[in-house]
């Protein structure tokens, strides 16, 4: 009878974990490279969202969500706890704009959330960045009428996280939306005005958490279990894996200057740009590929099949290459096989697009070294 049931159903019923397969050097290298690329893509989306929010005059709020000891069980038992929280914030923004609660808030609210499992005490918490076109109703300058202007928390977002404590802090920088709305500039503990930084600074701060070692691995080792949350290690197999993943709004940070008028040659070049040409090369690649797919939708199936390139199994290619060049040279060899274009390699049309979009390294006034997660 057991043989007639799929093995997956049996594992799910008895919570029996699937035995991990043995990974060779090529599999481990490909997995590490993939994760590095994903982290880099997530950070590019965050930085692009910061850039776009500044250009559109949106309010940016940095928040830290912690878990109270008496709310742990309720949080772990609700797989949609974070989703519901961000949805509630979106509805608050909708209400402030006089719109219905069931409207989509994609055009007025976006978020980016990174989990962190503290290595010191083992406390799980989340770092979130809220992007709002309109502040929720009741949002007032916390320093209005105060002799010492040292407060930055938004009163309208306090007590909105039902599973513990939150600290929603207004992100203040040169020419921010809060200043344009008349909010006073805060001071530090010594009464000195806070140093005005770039709007990218909070992006850099959150980026370091994206690059940390998998929090799932840290939790599995039970780090900090004696000081906090003794049940986490035993319940780990029952927790949804998405709890330890980066969360963001749909199409978050993917907005770019329209590509509808670009030539096919230009689109192909944008898919091959290296990081030195623009720090948003992966976002450009995805947008250019989307535009090409839209154009392919108007072409006959026969023409698409005729132009379809030969697909290469990268893992098989790596395993075949390792026999000739060895393990130590494999990563550099694979990198050399991937063509990356620089500004000197692309057409004037592509250069003009990058300049008009304002996404070259020179336009952003940052060094190419700020890459996080790989080029």
UniProtKB/TrEMBL annotation:
Gene Ontology molecular function terms on file: endonuclease activity; hydrolase activity
The keyword Cytoplasm appears for this protein: no
Domain Replication gene A protein-like: 2-216
Taxonomy, superkingdom: Eukaryota
Keywords (A to Z) from UniProt: DNA replication, Endonuclease, Hydrolase, Nuclease
GO biological process entries: DNA replication
Recorded coiled-coil stretches: none
Pfam families named in the record: Phage_GPA (PF05840)
Keyword set includes Hydrolase: yes
Protein's name in the database: Protein A
UniProt organism field: Toxocara canis (Canine roundworm)
